[in-house]
Amino acid sequence: MTQLKYDNLLFQLDExxxxxxxxxxxxxxxxxxxxxxxxxxxxxxxxxxxxxTPNQVNPEDLQEYSLVGFGSGIYSGKHHxxxxxxxxxxxxxxxxxxxxxxxxxxxxxxxxxHTTLRExxxxxxxxxxxxxxxxxFNTNSFTRFLGGVNKGRxxxxxxxxxxxxxxxxxxxx
Length: 173
Ligand SMILES: Cc1cc2nc3c(=O)[nH]c(=O)nc-3n(C[C@H](O)[C@H](O)[C@H](O)COP(=O)(O)O)c2cc1C
Prior knowledge:
The protein is α/β, with parallel strands linked by helices. The chain has a single domain (23-171), classed as 3-Layer(aba) Sandwich (Rossmann fold), CATH 3.40.50. Helix content is 41%, strand content 23%. It has helices spanning 2-21, 35-47, 81-89, 110-113, 115-123, 156-171; strands at 24-29, 50-52, 67-75, 78-79, 96-104, 126-135. The radius of gyration is 17 Å and the shape is globular. 34% of the residues are buried. It binds flavin mononucleotide (FMN). Flavin mononucleotide binds next to helix 2, strand 3 and strand 5.
């Protein structure tokens, strides 16, 4: 019985060794409807990663992490200014990986919306391993008179996709 429990524990540890081997953190700014926060919560659970805001983090300290996720809603076609400003203040790094995530109005524009942040991080030496985006509820400007757009997003399918995305990150490290 004891041996069985021990074997089971070893098996569980083995299953989780990918998570334990990667020290990761998520830098998140989410305010409009906390849409991106919902996605970040799912990714952080899979990666066993803490979530911090750009204002909480010292750019130098991010060097402690082998994988950093950067995410926010999309504002005027880019990640939130606080995330971009933090990326600008990061030191040059060697052998560090990052991933990007966001929620926005137009789900098919993810790659385009990520361009500014991707380019800043790449210029700092980060390898962008993957990117995730999905629609998020938006009541900005005139859309509020229509009851907003993307009501109910992110939805259950988006959460499932976010979970798969995070599991895939671990498998490909
Ligand atoms: C001021 C403002 C500007 C926005 N600009 C864009 C945009 O350029 N492109 C887009 O697809 N969505 C845009 N959106 C919609 C947000 O990206 C979307 O609602 C997102 O899910 C908000 O994320 P959050 O709740 O995590 O802050 C904008 C929203 C606001 C409030």
